[in-house]
Amino acid sequence: MRTIYTPFKNLNLFVLILGLLTVSSGCAGNHGMIRTGTAVSNAPSLAAPTPVPIQASPAAPSAPTASDVNQPVSEADYQKALADTNGSTVTSRNLDDYLTIAQYQFNQSNWGDSLKTYQQILTDVNKSPQLDRVQYMVGQIYYQQKNNLPALSAFQNVLQSYSGSAYADASRRMMEFMIQYSLSLDDLRSFVANYPNSPLKCSTLFELGSHEAQNGDTSEAVQTLNSFIQQCPQHPSVSTAQLLLQSLQSQQKGKTLRLGVLAPLTGHFKNFGQSMVNGITLAFEQANQNDPSHKLTLALVQDTEGDSLQAVKLFQDMVQNNTIDVLMGPVVKSEIDAVAPLANQQKILLLSPTYPVDGFSAIGPYAFSNSMTNEMQGRAMARYAVQTLGLKRFGLLFPEDGYGQTLSQAFTQAVEALGATVTAQDSYAPNSTDFQKQLVDLGGQNPELGKENALENQRRLDELHYNLNKEIQKILFKAQQADPTSSTVALVSLAEALGNTGAPSVVKDINDTLTTSIQAAKNYTLRDNDLVQQALTRLPIEFRGTTLTVSTDQWEDIAGDLQTSVIVTGRVLGANPPGDWSSQPTWNYAIQLDGYQVDPKTGQVTKIYGNTLPYSIYKPPSLVRMNLNYDALYIPAHSVEIPLIASQLHYYDLNPVLLGGHLWQNDSVLQEGAKDVEGAYFTTGFFTDSQQGTTKDFVTAYLQRFAVKPDLIAAQAYDAARLLLKVADTATDRDSLKNGLLSIKDFDGVCGKTTFNGRGEADKQVPIIQIKNGQYQQVQ
Questions:
Q1: H/E element holding 488?
Q2: What is the pLDDT of residue 60?
Q3: pLDDT, position 281
């Protein structure tokens, strides 16, 4: 049987535990083994374990099996039982045959077939005085197969279902033996979790605590031994557990926690790595000045060269040499993704000050991030825009990369959660310089389009003039056919539809065109307009200057005053659809022309012609707002793109409130964007010119120490180091350091207040900056 104990890394602790356990185990100490202290029965039906003297690596004794485990079965009996059962269902009549088959298979070490046979018996037979032994044999088979947890489960079933049976006692002894000699650390943890009400819970808890102490899992061992002492006050090993617990806690109190740093100090990302190391260095230098006795030490800094394979190798060396308890870095996401799972497996807390996206804590309980993520920026900007600025409708314009997509998605989700809406959005390829398509799609007006529209309007007007001239010719031709002697024409000026007063008037231009056309007609004389206007006074007042239709009877009186042969009149009707007329790109008209013939003998008036001409012209682009149904435009763009987008926004006649991400904080944005970015709001992880006390003091100290201003990475690394220094002073080991971080709330960092809320990713109150008078000003 394999030995599950390994020598203690700390020899003094091993000797202490071994001595304590031997003294406290009573008669069991005579066996020279580490025992749980549970009394061992000497029932004649059981074979007692063989005593083994203490050795440097003790071997386990033989398992205390029941005396009838290996009942003899002959080959002939086995064959006869097979023939009698012939694969039938187990019943009370053939139960003995099946027991014979199972026992024979067991004796032949045919564990798989024997297990199937015993399990078939348990499935088919509900009641029999022999089922306690069958269940016990199932446990023995699992034990022989080294399937420890199923074996324990089987023995546990015997204890629960057949408590008065001799096999219950045998099962207890097997469980005690396995708990002491067969179970690994993970097995012990699984048994404790799955069988909280087991009669052997106390023995298992003590063994688990001892194993954890031996394995170096000090925090877990302290927690387990405390649970054992509280839950099992009458157990014989309580005094041993108390002494072991005291020893572990004593070691914890004096322990110094060691910080390792992985950073790219050479290669393409060396500036990022140096910023992180500078931030950490400043935090430790300030801590040493304030309290040289703090418990967290900066053990070593290693150069990853920006290579994830190198980062993994360096971390593995740290673990192998047992040189660190907590890790900061690496900087580059690919390096972090490679190292973080390994750190979690080794239960070494990794605190990243640079991980850019949500989800880092999903790696495991030892993965922590103090970085402002892209998603965090999007949520913060949405909250400020809706709750502080009072905006409700938003447009989006973002680059088609991970940065732009994650910020815009987070912004959209947060906006909608707050009851506002994103009404328009578009994206562009990274490094674009021309945003015409996107901005026009977002409601912008292209000045070049205005020039094209003006040319088209002139073409349409020329076409209208041509058609009006044709209409006059048709009317006069009809009049000539009706009365070859007709020679005079009265033009009643066209009236304009009252519903179209918002559009520019075309009446004067149409009247002028009609006048010119009549004057150019042969054989016809145009009556003076003053005479026409005087004659119109005969019309009821409600008809004057309106679009109401005048009857032929009413025209007869007017025609007599005018002494004319032909009357030409009409009206201009608007054809724009109802609603927001400004959203239509054109003004649409319907021009109605009518011709009346006057009989020179009778004076009667007859309508001889009527036609409607459609006419539309493009509006000036400044009057059209096709898609501008938003109040603010969120642009999580890169620094080089922001001035280009801002200037083109105004070129295309768009003037929404501008919102952005942390890459807006760049000198080029202020210098090149100038007035185009004035008034914009954006998020930032760290504001160098902040006047808030903690941040201002950090910038001053960093500038004095390194002769440059700190960047975001330096600030986040500084905060991360201060967080570790804070919780390390009350921590006793790696786990308590982890738990201390989880409990952090409203930590006053240079990157804003930080809270972990019981999870591995910091929740930060992200600063909000406004560009005002050409300068950055913090507004939150």
A1: strand 488-491
A2: 59
A3: 92
Q: What is the dihedral of CA 347, 352, 357, 361, to 10 degrees?
A: 20
Burial zone of 220 (CB within 10 Å; 0-12 exposed, 13-18 middle, 19+ buried): buried
**Element containing residue 19 per DSSP (H, E):** helix 11-24
Report which secondary-structure segment, H or E, holds 752: strand 752-755
| 685 token code pair | 């992880």
For residues 628 and 654, the answer to whether their CB atoms sit within 8 Å is yes
pLDDT tens digits along 191-227: 888 888 888 889 999 999 989 888 877 778 888 898 8
What is the spatial distance between Cα 468 and Cα 513, in angstroms, rounded to a whole number? Answer: 7
Would you give the distance in Å from CA 672 to the centre of its chain? Answer: 33
Closest CA to 626 of 594, 660, 586: 586
Cα torsion through 151, 155, 160, 164, rounded to 10? 170
User: Could you say which DSSP state residue 607 is in?
Assistant: E
**Apex 476 CA angle, 553 and 488, nearest 5:** 70
Q: Which residues have CB under 8 Å from 25's CB, separation 6+?
A: 35, 37, 236, 237
- Residue ranges of the chain with per-residue pLDDT less than 70: 1-60, 249-255, 292-293, 447, 496-503, 541-548, 574-583, 621-628
Q: How far is CA 537 from CA 8, 273, 545, in A?
A: 120, 92, 11
pLDDT of residue 75: 93
Matching residue, tokens 């509900």: 126
DSSP state of 50: P
By the 8 A CB rule, do 724 and 713 touch? no
Whole-angstrom distance, CA of residue 251 vs CA of residue 259: 19
What burial letters (b/e) apply to 121-138, b meaning 16+ CB within 10 Å?
bbeebeeeeebbbbbbbb
Is the separation of the CB atoms in 494 and 613 below 8 Å?
no
Q: Which two tokens stand for residue 409?
A: 């998605």
Rounded to an integer, what distance in angstroms lies between the CA atom of residue 354 and that of residue 370? 7
* pLDDT for the residue numbered 583: 62
DSSP 656: P
